[in-house]
Amino acid sequence: MFNFFKKKEETIVNDLVVDDNDIVALADGKLIDVATVPDPVFAEKMMGDSVAFKYDGNKVVLCAPANGELSVLFPTGHAFGITTKNGVELLVHCGVNTVEANGDGFKLLGKKQGDTVKAGDPIVEADLKKLGAKYDMSTMLIITNANGQEISFIEPTDVKRGQSVIK
Q: Is the N or C terminus of the chain more exposed, i.e. has fewer CB atoms within 10 Å?
């Protein structure tokens, strides 16, 4: 009933303060319109409201987009999910059809399913050069369950790891 004394958790990522209600960029890159992704499941938001990211370079370290629990971590490294303290469920999916790579090109970075994570914690490294030879490497951030909350993403732009991607 009274939340006056409840401590609000905050994390600092790239000098940016991230609280428990925020959703942030996974890495430095470009936030793009998910409708441009060459997979109808993502492009048509069949799994939930979402955005996509494009990354430059040979590799990218994908970090937790929010404070919460690492509720899903595929052993192949191509996808992971976070459940925030307020019940919002997020899914990060790196690349289109990358599950077919069977983990080749992905490296898990020491976190386990069930771990508590903070926004900006490294979860998986993707070898963009290797995987990009065969797959579209757009990375999707999907709100699979907004838990009754109104959440909307910012417009496409360049983003830095830890920067808020919600309005």
A: N
pLDDT digits (tens, 9 = 90+) for 40-88: 999 999 999 999 999 999 999 999 999 999 999 999 999 999 999 999 9
Catalytic residue among 62, 93, 98, 142: 93
Question: Which residues face 68 on adjacent strands?
Answer: 117
The pair of structure tokens assigned to 36 is 């441009």
Strand segments, DSSP code E, in the chain are: 10-13, 16-19, 29-32, 50-54, 59-63, 68-73, 79-83, 89-94, 106-108, 116-117, 122-127, 139-145, 157-159
Q: Is 78 a catalytic residue?
A: no
**CA nearest to 141, candidates 164, 118, 114:** 164
Measure the CA–CA gap between 149 and 138, rounded to whole angstroms: 26
The C-alpha angle with vertex 125 and arms to 39 and 65, in degrees rounded to 5, equals 70
Threshold 0.90, pTM exceeds: yes
d(CA 17, CA 163) in angstroms, rounded, equals: 9
